[in-house]
Design goal:
The protein is an alpha+beta fold. It has 8 helices and 5 strands; from the N terminus they run ααβαββββααααα. 37% of the residues lie in helices and 18% in strands.
Length: 195
């Protein structure tokens, strides 16, 4: 959201290899999504239900991820402002925005992310160390878990943090609105190349 597209990713490589890229409403650094190696989560809640302080609210919402991983014996640490670390390496990052009294926080949990492809796609500034030295995933750290197991533990962790989840399906109206927004806004060059 706050970065120039061409300076944050290798656009030519992405286009040649059918790798999608999109700008997030929350801002923050660039994110590499690997549908076979990471889980993306979103939490939407009233500002009234979370700490007012941004740092405290990140930690509070991350509580669901932390508690879920703890059930599997994985002890991660919250590293302000918006990361979870395992063995001093980044395992999860998140971003947050607040509008009209509502908080949106979304993030990733890397369990078998292709870090070589991530390093190839993202353009990392000279100030940051190479990805392999500062980022990890659960499989690298010796945890052989599949997506289904992780989703189950995350659900349990979020329920422990926020209360019992009510499972529901997306309505036809919601799906229609999402498709329209995707086509008219989020897939457009105007949105994705805007700074």
């Amino acid at each position: 959201y706050f970065q120039r597209l061409e300076s944050s990713i290798d656009i030519d490589y992405c286009n040649k290899n059918n790798i999608d890229y999109v700008r997030r409403i929350t801002g923050g650094g660039n994110v590499f999504h690997d549908s076979e190696g990471e889980i993306t989560y979103s939490v939407v809640m009233s500002e009234k239900n979370a700490p007012e302080n941004i740092l405290d609210s990140f930690h509070y919402i991350y509580g669901g991820v932390i508690k879920g991983l703890n059930t599997l014996g994985i002890n991660v640490e919250f590293k302000p402002l918006n990361d979870l670390t395992l063995n001093s390496k980044k395992l999860s990052g998140s971003a947050q925005t607040r509008r009209l009294g509502v908080i949106l926080q979304h993030g990733t949990l890397m369990y078998n992310t292709d870090l070589e492809l991530m390093e190839r796609v993202l353009r990392i500034s000279d100030k940051k160390i190479e990805i392999k030295k500062r980022v990890t995933n659960l499989s690298i750290e010796g945890y052989s878990l599949n997506k289904k197991e992780l989703l189950k533990c995350l659900k349990e962790g979020f329920e422990e943090t926020f209360g019992k989840a009510k499972e529901d399906n997306i309505s036809k109206e919601e799906l229609s609105i999402a498709r329209k927004l995707s086509l008219d806004k989020y897939q457009s060059d105007e949105w994705n190349q805007k700074r």
